[in-house]
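Explain this protein:
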Amino acid sequence: MHPGASTVLSWRSTSKDSEQYLQIRPSFDNSQPSYSWGHAVAVGSSYIYSKDQQLDPGFRQNCVTSNCSLKLNEMEKKDILLCCNPSSGSKQLWFSVGTDASVLNTELNIPVYDWRISIFSPMKLENRLPCPAEFSISEKTKEGNCVERHRGVISSRQSVHIYSVDIQKPLYLTLSVQHGWVMEKVITNLALHVLSLYDYDIYI
């Protein structure tokens, strides 16, 4: 599937006797390393989280495969954080997968669920400033060191999707505006708090 595209899964894959699972991994040309199929590292339900309050650690749980696998005949509304490991190097890629359903009423008044599976970046950074901004996102390790995971420049009124950071770990944002603008206070090591596995947007 190309970015922004969609495809249809057969209705039979959701039947009770189905043993089909959905697996996800990035696909690149031969110049990029290949990646393993994504494995679930965390699960949450979107209704548990709120953008207005910090995530209660009690709502986050480590997953075992049986609880987080996308088995198509056992789907429920939830959000899964997937990690894909490269065949070479150490740059992992992360994806947020959300499952949701709308109810289709039939003539027999028996509800039929129309499931939708969406794949997102775990983090999106949006620049609402009138000028470009350079940014760096670092990840704090267990040893207390900060490792830079992503660096780039965002044009004014544009956004960038981040796939290279583990949103379960403490993250820090370093920001510098461009084109002659000077910030009164330099923003360095701004701590980022994860609010959701499904919708993690940062605005500057």
The CA atoms of residues 48 and 59 lie 7 Å apart. The two ends are 31 Å apart (CA to CA).
